[in-house]
Design brief:
By secondary structure, the chain is mainly α. The protein has helices spanning 2-17, 26-39, 44-63, 70-73, 76-83, 91-108, 130-141, 146-162, 167-170; strands at 177-180, 183-188, 194-197. The protein has a three-stranded antiparallel sheet, covered by helices on one side.
Length: 201
């Protein structure tokens, strides 16, 4: 009903108005309450998340001497500087903060340029040791036919040496592997096209 919706919005507004964390300056908390109220979150949980993000950004802005004005603090350059710094925490937290801050910027600022490329969700893995690669190559040498030995060795070299995965391995041709600048380079096509220097063994 209309009365229930009104009470709901009053609850969210009251939550925003009384938000005053002890770990950030009072003027930073005041800025966060202001921009989150303008964004009009539709639930207490959403309001809490936006207040947390805006408060962290405002605290960072104070620390680097920026004025607490929406056009400055919610500018893309400030958001990127904050989320790329050590102040924003681990990568998952940085992604969440940036998404919430960009939402606030869209809601509060009238004109904004297109957004940046999202943070990568990939996680680098430890490289294979020389002993592990030697073991894989030994398995390749044990294959029953010359063709299978060649194919399996190529998979090991392209995977462990050049870091190719999935479809990248399927679409590599002999012409994509060239000697250049004293080493070997693999040209990768597709969505993540690139030239990859192969690890020497």
């Amino acid at each position: 009903t209309e009365e229930e919706r009104f009470r709901f919005f009053v609850t969210v507004a009251a939550q925003i108005a009384r938000w005053a964390p002890a770990r950030i300056p009072a003027d930073a908390a005041r800025f966060a309450r202001r921009v989150v109220a303008e964004a009009a979150p539709t639930s207490p949980e959403r309001a809490k998340a936006l207040l947390f993000a805006a408060g962290r950004l405002a605290d960072f802005s104070c620390s680097v001497g920026l004025p607490l004005e929406p056009g400055v603090v919610l500018d893309d350059s400030t958001i990127e500087r904050f989320t790329s710094s050590g102040h924003a925490g681990a990568p998952p937290t940085r992604r969440t903060l940036r998404a919430n801050l960009r939402f606030l910027a869209r809601a509060v600022l009238a004109d904004r340029p297109p957004g940046p490329v999202p943070f990568s969700r990939e996680r680098a893995k430890a490289p294979y040791t020389d002993a592990e690669i030697a073991g894989y190559l030994a398995l390749c040498d044990a294959q029953p036919t010359a063709l299978r030995r060649q194919r399996s060795a190529a998979l090991v070299c392209l995977g462990a040496g050049a870091g190719l995965v999935g479809a990248e391995l399927r679409f590599v041709r002999g012409s994509d592997v060239v000697s250049r600048s004293g080493g070997v380079v693999v040209t990768v096509s597709g969505r993540r096209s690139r030239s990859v220097p192969v690890r020497a063994h």
